[in-house]
Amino acid sequence: MTELTALPQWQHLQELASTIDQQHMRDWFAEDEDRAARMQVESCGLYLDFSKNRVTDEVMQTLFSLAEAQGLSDKRQKMFAGEAINTTENRAVLHTALRNVSDTPVLVDGKDVMPEVKATLQKMESFTEAVHSGAHTGYTGKPIKHVVSIGIGGSFLGPKIMTEALKPFRHSAVKVHFVANVDGCHIHDVLSELDHTETLIVMSSKSFTTQETLQNTQSAKAWFLAQGGAQEDVAKHFVAVSSNVTAAVSFGIAKDNIFPMWDWVGGRYSLWSAIGLPIALALGFANFKQLLEGAHDMDRHFATAPSERNLPVILAMLGVWYRNFFGAQSHVLLPYYHYLRGLPAYVQQLDMESNGKSVTQSGENVAYPTGPIIWGSEGTNGQHSFHQLIHQGQGIIPADFILPLNVPNQDDTHHAMLASNCFGQSQALMQGKTFEECFADLADKGLEEDERERLARHKTMPGNKPSNTILFDSLTPHTLGALIAMYEHKVFVQGVVWQLNSFDQWGVELGKVLGDRVLAGIHGDQDDADFDASTQQLIARFKHANAPE
Ligand SMILES: O=P(O)(O)OC[C@H]1O[C@](O)(CO)[C@@H](O)[C@@H]1O
After folding, report:
1. What is the share, in percent, of the chain residues with pLDDT greater than 70?
2. Which amino acid residue places its CA nearest to atom 10 of ligand 1?
3. Ligand 1 close to Cβ of residue 268 (< 6 A)
4. CA 301, CA 243: separation in Å to the nearest integer?
5. Alpha carbon distances (Å) from 61 to 58, 65, 275, 396
């Protein structure tokens, strides 16, 4: 395959970028009254206005052509077809099969995986209904009122953030709590509020080897027993989701209480699998199903829409444009909806664990920037904090503004203000305010000319800062499914362009191994000489502070 940077499309984009760097979006809007109408797309309940980007039609066409030159159509087809595109782990990548609500079979190594997927969904549905109806009780016969979901990374962020985002859809029978960190404060705080006879623990770990999740589950079990539960009562209160059924059984989870998943589901793509059980318990299975259906709609859109109308492809290629041709180091997500406040953290794992890589599929060092830093928080809070840097700081930070047009349980006053802030911010980022405008504004302040000039320089807003605006009618499970799947496919497209394997995460392994060794060092089971001088010093301080009196 031709080196990415040697492709004619890449070279052409470089030329276009140097011209566009001299132009201002403000002028484009003034000169081209069709711009906004042309640069908008709507599908799966999501509306995208991408007109406030530093792109022309020619740039967009060249970006789409670059994606094709990198094999987008072929690789997308391979992903949906269950080919082993995760080449370092020799695995298929089939989160799309988990939400395949059609009757189409999906083959992995010649075997249709859909019967297993459907059987697991059925098991989730029956269990959720049994908990909600009170058919599944705790060991004293009391109904389950609290669910504690224990898991980390993809076994935590998806369930937690989807449950939070869909708060208006919550089922009244149970309240779901989440524990991820091995920091004991978290599990202690959650469990200390609960009655063990009414509590169900859902332990979620694809690998069943993750230190944090194993330890938190052990602590939860110790709590359950200390509160008066007996070993034979554990089965009524502990279930697990894992692809490692053998390890789950030897840990002590009853076989019937294990919800399976498969190695072709990546952790950060797993909320659609049984990892979504806490979502179903929190919202009811029908709402979980709607989430899957929304994602499936986005899958169909991604697979079939031409690039010009394809939401994930457009977003991905705009990201490539800024990352590779304008030096953008990060991308900010700005959900203007309190319940969607967790979205930046969700997309952060999705994007940064997928494309935070410097070696191509074939093992060569990349010669261009890859995955950006993803960050952000809910509007309007960010406006009174970090937006300053987006407006007047150096470089560009492309932004996604995300807003539901309708919200539940609110009067219109708040929502109109929220929307006006959202639209006002993207407008300010785009148009800015010139030195001359700022200077004129200071005319009647009674200032000396040089003071007016000095202040106007500080007040000048460069503008020309890019953003997308994503709107939807209201945040239903269906819309949320489509929104999350859109970001998943955006990450996929960027991985294709950058020639990365977006589905492994070797970068997290060394820290785990060394962390285990340090733990052995703390317990005195590992020789000090095995650590560098700094680490020895830190361990010594920790041991000293925790030494028995
Ligand atoms: O579900 P598991 O196997 O416990 O893994 C949890 C998380 O840990 C990671 O492997 C990274 O450490 C993530 O990719 C994953 O989502």
Report:
1. 100
2. 267
3. yes
4. 29
5. 5, 6, 39, 22
